[in-house]
Design brief:
Blueprint (H helix, E strand, L loop, with lengths): L1 H8 L2 H6 L1 H19 L6 E5 L5 H7 L7 E6 L2 H13 L6 E5 L12 E7 L8 H11 E12 L6 H12 L21 H8 L3 E14 L2 H11 L1 H8 L3 H15 L9 E13 L3
Parallel strand pairs: 1-2, 1-4, 2-3, 4-5
Antiparallel strand pairs: 5-7, 6-7
Length: 278
């Protein structure tokens, strides 16, 4: 899936350094996905674009006895990160790991009772192929719980640096149809994609996230370390341009400063549940 996926997930070290922040901000999304998926003992569940594996591992405990989680990602670095996390949690016996491209999965038809995918589908070059593959590997009646980011305007934590660079004329406006975090943000886009793959959409809802940092400077260090797209922008920027990008981004977030100088930035994501027809 190329550099577009790398923009989100291939910097494993960055995720590891910021794991606690990420879990605190996004834990409600993972919890809601698992609640919608409703994993049960004895089931086989597939996690796609697992990243460090947090959502799937949250579901894994419900699969015992007799069940299994298959944790997959396109980036080998992230598969290894998920493997380490499973070991830390003592869940190795319940989980297997594989490098997989969700546009062309290696699994047989009707292999899984359920699947979960948090913030991965919108990064795939051929989303239609990925949705069809999800439907193919689900058993009749099997379900998929997934999350995609809502509108860019509702996710300033992620978009402030890019918008600052855009205003400075240092980058071009991104193609809304290209792989990226907000590609399925438009109302109805996710439902249309899933329905087009033959899945029955049961629910689509919004879940809020709350990103926090101890200061604007701490926020900048976090996004600089975890955002591959920002890293690429800064690599091609002069020292003065890099300072201007940071200054413009921090101005965008000043409204979220708390009385103690810390930062609390709201965000929003779409969460859906769909099923393969019986």
């Amino acid at each position: 899936m190329g550099e577009n996926v790398d923009n989100w997930r291939s910097v494993a070290a960055g995720w590891e350094r910021q794991r606690q922040l990420f879990l605190a901000a996004t834990g409600m999304v993972s919890e809601r996905l698992v609640a919608l998926l409703d994993p049960r003992a004895g089931e086989t569940i597939l996690e796609l674009a697992a990243g460090p594996g947090d959502t799937g591992l949250l579901a894994a405990r419900s699969l015992a006895p007799g069940g299994r989680l298959v944790s997959t990602d396109f980036a080998p670095e992230m598969v290894e990160a998920a493997r380490r996390r499973a070991a830390e949690l003592g869940l190795e016996e319940l989980v297997s790991f594989a490098v997989e491209d969700m546009q062309s999965l290696s699994f047989a038809d009707a292999s899984f009772d359920g699947a979960v995918c948090r913030w991965g589908l919108m990064l795939v070059p051929d989303m239609q192929a990925a949705a069809r593959e999800i439907a193919r590997v689900l058993r009749p009646g099997g379900r998929i719980a997934l999350a995609v980011w809502a509108d860019a305007d509702d996710n300033d934590w992620m978009t402030a640096p890019g918008r600052s660079a855009l205003e400075l004329g240092l980058v071009e406006r991104p193609d809304p149809n290209a792989p990226g975090p907000f590609r399925l943000a438009r109302e109805g886009a996710l439902e249309d994609l899933l329905a087009g793959a033959g899945l029955l959409v049961e629910t689509v809802e919004d879940v809020s996230v709350a990103w926090r940092a101890t200061s604007l400077s701490a926020w900048w260090e976090i996004v600089r370390d975890t955002s591959r797209s920002l890293a690429l922008i800064l690599e091609n920027a002069t020292v003065d341009d890099a300072k201007a990008i940071r200054a413009g981004a921090e101005r965008r977030l000043e409204r979220y400063l708390q009385p103690d100088g810390s930062l609390a930035v709201p965000g929003r994501t779409h969460v859906a549940l769909a099923r393969r027809p019986t």
